């Protein structure tokens, strides 16, 4: 079938951005030849075929492409109407010379009658194929109902007469609607009652020139178009309490409105209405281009009016010679096809599909909307390709000068097609926009040739040092030849040897290449904040032995401050104390000096300093504390130096504080230290009382009790023994309680871990694979697929990830685990 087109058959009245609702095609093939010699007078549409009547009394059966399948010679004069039943097996035909024929297309049964007046209309019962529904109506100057009885004879009854010619009739289910010169009537075939009479509004128009158009929307909704008036009528069941002598049904007009032009045909389209208008020459406000062309409008009916949805002026053959009565509108309910019939032309209108929608968007240069529509409906589109639309969008953005947007679209459109990627990179190079596309290049497992990345790096190195540094930080070192880039940077440093950004970038390149000594030397010269991180991360302590001078110079500001404050020791203490609080390692070389300063000016902070500093000499600190008789500080230093017995002795002898002694023994947790404490306390009843009250949880109290001399008076002995027993019972209870808590906590944590691992991570069509840069969800979600989502929220297709490595089942994010950079945060694997 020829491609449907939207231009040539119609012209929109306004140059508007509104998309057409319908597309048009002229019915050709056999129809073209028929209409060259004859003229169409009527047509009816079935889902399987078309039936066309002509002015020369012939009836043609056509397929939907317009090819003739059968031909009937009915009469020498015009065929007025053709009627088909729902099955398409029977046809009724009437002509201007009074002939009526009803026959089966595939059987020999039939009805043939000649009347003495023109028969304008004929309608078969929709279920005419069934034996109990052999009924049809004809209309000339009266409406006749034909029924075949059980004797296989036709019985005739008059449904209506006396109001002029019957000009139209439509049969739906059990309801027959017909129009005459006065109005429209509806007859209920089941109850054999006429249930309504809808009068004609504009009686000034000749009924034969402006005939009534009838259309059943469904089994109970009739649409009437006459002149410029439209009425929508609904057949309803009457309340049994109100019936009396009235019909069991009645008609309610739910909507009525006037149109601008004369109606030639009506057809339903979902909840809207398709109207075929005849436009007279006398419409002064109409432009000449649209005069006398028939119009096909889609309107939305409202209770007291209508809203125009779309309007197309149709260019049919010989439209200048046609009148309102020469046009007809027929429709196929199955495919929403609308046939505009005129004497010398038949045009088919059809709802536009997604391909037509994309055509219109591309024509209007709405590429982004076209790409989105193609992606959403990629299974249904036939004439378009998503990638071609995407390439057209990229070309449009480049032509418009929006290079960044064009480069951003490359990531989504080009996907895994490396040839297209390289073509786009060279095109961006040609137009001088390599910078725009650089941040969107593939950098995961899917990679371009190293020469592509090096070309972009060289471009940045020529014009944008900051952008060059950013790319070096973001791109994995495996993408390009590291040594070639190092050489290029050194060439630029010859022209500008003090450029800190280039030097920093060079240090990063040396780090990627594992030449840490060269990187360290640059960092020290620049006094870069990452120098200590580099030393610790790569264990470069041996490498800095010959760079001590550089390292000292790195911290020369601190040295300058200390030198300036050496004559003001109290201020020097404040500076070094604040420096120590901020960073325990920053001023480590001054920690020995700080011992004296704390002892002199700030003894309360001396013990915390000794506890937190890892760089102060212990012997020097012990000497100072012993000179000043700082017992607590001396005890701490002795214990830190390993002389715990001497420290305990000082607590017992100089502080005479059994509680501190016990606390010290608890901290050291040394059995020999406890023995020393017991030995020292065994002849001191107050000390024994303290031990009995506190020893129970660390040492077996029996050891102490056995060593107490008989007859020694110990204060509060009974209370101490009771406390020992209570502590023992408490320990038992605590152990049991802890065991229960441990079991409960283990179960709770297991359940929480289970819930956490079951929790989903949102993955939709907007996410892309960080490796292949294609949508993370496949086009066909019916097929099995795998997606890996890391804690860092980077997503990969399962097949795009490398093999797990040495530990089965453990995978890491390629982005976050780039060559010796980043936290390597891929710690969670999620499969979908």
Automatic annotation (TrEMBL):
The keyword Nucleotide-binding is annotated on this UniProt entry: no
InterPro entries: Beta-prop_Vps41 (IPR057780), Clathrin_H-chain/VPS_repeat (IPR000547), TPR-like_helical_dom_sf (IPR011990), Vps41 (IPR016902), Vps41/Vps8 (IPR045111), WD40/YVTN_repeat-like_dom_sf (IPR015943), WD40_repeat_dom_sf (IPR036322), Znf_RING (IPR001841)
Domain RING-type: 769-817
GO cellular component term, pick one: lysosomal membrane
Single GO BP term: macroautophagy
Chief localization: cytoplasm
Listed PROSITE patterns: CHCR, ZF_RING_2
CHCR repeats (start-end): 545-690
Molecular-function GO term, any one: zinc ion binding
Topology with respect to the bilayer: Peripheral membrane protein
UniProt entry keywords in alphabetical sequence: Autophagy, Cytoplasm, Cytoplasmic vesicle, Endosome, Golgi apparatus, Lysosome, Membrane, Metal-binding, Protein transport, Transport, Zinc, Zinc-finger
Location of this chain's protein in the cell: Cytoplasm, Cytosol; Early endosome membrane; Endosome membrane; Late endosome membrane
Assigned protein family: Belongs to the VPS41 family.
Reported function: Plays a role in vesicle-mediated protein trafficking to lysosomal compartments including the endocytic membrane transport pathways.
Protein's UniProt name: Vacuolar protein sorting-associated protein 41 homolog
């Amino acid at each position: 079938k020829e491609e449907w087109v939207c231009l040539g058959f119609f012209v929109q009245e306004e140059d508007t951005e509104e998309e057409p609702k319908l597309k048009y095609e002229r019915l050709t093939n056999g129809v073209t030849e028929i209409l060259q010699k004859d003229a169409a007078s009527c047509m009816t549409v079935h889902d399987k075929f078309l039936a066309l009547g002509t002015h020369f009394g012939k009836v043609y059966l056509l397929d939907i492409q317009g090819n003739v399948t059968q031909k009937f010679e009915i009469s020498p004069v015009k065929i007025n109407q053709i009627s088909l039943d729902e099955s398409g097996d029977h046809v009724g035909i009437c002509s201007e010379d009074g002939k009526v024929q009803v026959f089966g297309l595939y059987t020999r049964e039939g009805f043939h009658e000649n009347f003495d007046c023109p028969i304008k209309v004929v309608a078969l019962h929709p279920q005419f194929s069934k034996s109990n529904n052999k009924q049809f109506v004809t209309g000339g100057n009266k409406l006749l109902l034909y029924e075949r009885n059980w004797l296989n004879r036709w019985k005739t009854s008059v449904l209506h007469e006396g109001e002029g010619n019957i000009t139209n009739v439509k049969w739906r289910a059990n309801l027959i609607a017909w129009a005459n010169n006065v109005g429209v009537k509806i007859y209920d075939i089941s109850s054999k009652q006429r249930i309504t009479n809808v009068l004609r509004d504009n009686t000034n128009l000749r009924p034969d020139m402006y005939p009534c158009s009838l259309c059943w929307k469904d089994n109970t909704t009739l649409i009437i178009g006459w002149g410029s008036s439209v009425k929508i009528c609904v057949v309803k069941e009457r309340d049994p309490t109100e019936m009396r002598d009235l019909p069991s049904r009645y008609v309610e007009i739910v909507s009525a409105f006037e149109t601008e032009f004369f109606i030639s045909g009506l057809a339903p389209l979902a909840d809207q209405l398709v109207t075929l208008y005849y436009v007279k020459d006398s419409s002064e406000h109409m432009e000449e281009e649209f005069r006398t062309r028939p119009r096909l409008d889609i309107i939305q009916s409202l209770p007291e009016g209508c809203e125009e949805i779309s309007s197309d002026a149709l260019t049919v053959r010989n439209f200048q010679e046609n009148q309102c009565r020469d046009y007809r509108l027929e429709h196929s309910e199955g495919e929403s096809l609308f046939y505009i019939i005129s004497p010398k032309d038949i045009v088919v209108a059809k709802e536009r599909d997604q391909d037509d929608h994309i055509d219109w968007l591309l024509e209007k240069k709405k590429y982004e909307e076209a790409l989105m529509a193609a992606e959403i409906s990629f299974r249904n589109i036939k004439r378009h390709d998503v990638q071609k639309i995407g390439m057209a969008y990229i070309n449009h953005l480049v032509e418009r000068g929006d290079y960044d947007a064009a480069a951003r679209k490359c990531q989504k459109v080009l996907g895994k097609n490396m040839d297209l990627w390289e073509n786009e990179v060279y095109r961006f190079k040609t137009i001088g926009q390599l910078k725009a596309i650089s941040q969107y290049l593939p950098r995961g497992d899917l990679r371009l040739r190293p020469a592509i990345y090096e070309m972009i790096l060289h471009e940045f190195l020529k014009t944008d040092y900051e952008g060059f540094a950013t790319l070096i930080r973001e791109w994995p070192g495996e993408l390009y030849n590291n040594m070639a880039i190092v050489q290029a940077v050194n060439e630029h440093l010859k022209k500008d040897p003090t450029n800190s950004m280039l030097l920093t970038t060079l240090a990063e390149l040396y780090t990627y290449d594992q030449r840490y000594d060269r990187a360290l030397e640059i960092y020290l010269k620049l006094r870069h904040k990452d120098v200590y991180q580099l030393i610790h991360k790569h264990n470069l302590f041996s490498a800095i032995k010959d760079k001590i001078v550089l390292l000292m110079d790195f911290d020369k500001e601190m040295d300058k401050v200390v030198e300036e404050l050496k004559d003001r020791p109290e201020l020097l203490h404040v500076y070094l104390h604040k420096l120590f609080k901020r960073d325990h390692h920053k001023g480590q070389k001054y920690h020995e000096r700080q011992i004296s300063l704390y002892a002199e000016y700030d003894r309360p902070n001396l013990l915390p300093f000794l506890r937190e500093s890892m760089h102060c000499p212990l012997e020097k600190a012990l000497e100072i504390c012993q000179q000043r008789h700082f017992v607590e500080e001396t005890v701490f230093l002795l214990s830190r130096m390993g002389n715990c017995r001497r420290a305990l002795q000082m607590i017992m002898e100089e502080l005479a504080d059994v509680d501190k002694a016990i606390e010290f023994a608890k901290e050291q947790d040394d059995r020999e230290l406890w023995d020393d404490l017991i030995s020292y306390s065994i002849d001191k009843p107050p000390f024994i009382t303290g031990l009995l009250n506190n020893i129970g949880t660390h040492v077996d109290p029996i050891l102490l009790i056995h060593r107490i001399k008989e007859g020694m008076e110990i204060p509060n002995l009974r209370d101490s023994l009771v406390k020992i027993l209570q502590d023992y019972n408490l320990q038992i209870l605590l152990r049991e309680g802890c065991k229960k808590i441990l079991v409960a906590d283990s179960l709770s944590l297991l359940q929480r871990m289970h819930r956490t691992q079951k929790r989903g991570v949102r993955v939709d069509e907007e996410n892309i694979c960080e490796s292949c840069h294609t949508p993370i969800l496949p086009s066909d979600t019916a097929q099995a697929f795998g997606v890996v989502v890391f804690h860092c929220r980077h997503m990969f297709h399962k097949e795009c990830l490398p093999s797990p490595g040495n530990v089965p089942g453990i995978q890491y994010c390629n982005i976050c685990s780039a060559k010796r950079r980043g936290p390597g945060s891929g710690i969670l694997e999620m499969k979908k």
